[in-house]
Amino acid sequence: MPLLELKNVTKTFGGIVAVKDVSFSTESEEIVGLIGPNGAGKTTIFNLITGVYKPTEGNIVFEGQDITGSNPVSIVKGGIARTFQNIRLFNKLSVLENIRTVLYREADYNLGNALIRTPKVTRIEKKLYDKSLEYLEVVGLTDYVNNRADSLPYGLQRKLEIARALALDPKLLLLDEPAAGMNPDECIDLVELIMKIREKYNLTIILIEHHMDVVMELCPRILVINFGEMLMEGTKQEVQTHPRVLRAYLGEEYINA
Ligand code: ATP
To answer: Where would I find the beta strands (DSSP E) of the chain?
Structure first.
């Protein structure tokens, strides 16, 4: 059974058809690339999967359950987390607090317990603290736990977003242009990080990315979207050698790469 399945999904905004009759599925623990030119509909697909938008037509199935039209909170709880193209952190909070805000939804104590700091509260808070540090260590932010989120360089803010998404304990992670604004060294580092978290947390990942070297490095299978429609789906070798894709999206330098 596929982990996620989109069946003939269409999304229109007024007269604009942002996504048109798109179908694809992802298997457990694979990394799939989702590529296409600006405005092709990639982020809209993420917004449909995460419940930000409801499909105009079609169905979205996750772990065999139809989640079409479910609200974003229940979709996150069901195991789908994402990062955003435009980083969305709590800027004024510390790096650690950015993770703790996510983990605190797990804390099962009430206000009364918290006010008199029962041993249960202390125990739970210690557990959440340790868990926060674990996620920060995984993405390499241990040295920055007390820094304000907005004081971090851009590349590290993106890693913090990934850590925050991991703290939601997802099965499916949607990464929306995680390498945007990164230099080549940072891209290499990011590729290693994505491989590491996939392995460590048994994640399935869908990756939207314009850095083709990152996509080719990470994604054995790639979906190509053009004007809201699926142009092709194939292995990275097939995508790399497909003439229309080459010319339209990758540039000539990827021919025979
Ligand atoms: P990019 O690579 O630039 O991020 P994209 O492939 O993610 O592009 P989308 O952001 O999904 O593309 O946009 C697809 C189309 O849908 C565009 O024409 C966009 O203007 C339109 N669109 C997306 N969201 C809305 C909205 N809320 N209202 C109206 N039109 C929208």
So the answer is: 4-13, 16-26, 31-35, 57-62, 65-66, 80-82, 172-176, 204-208, 221-226, 229-235
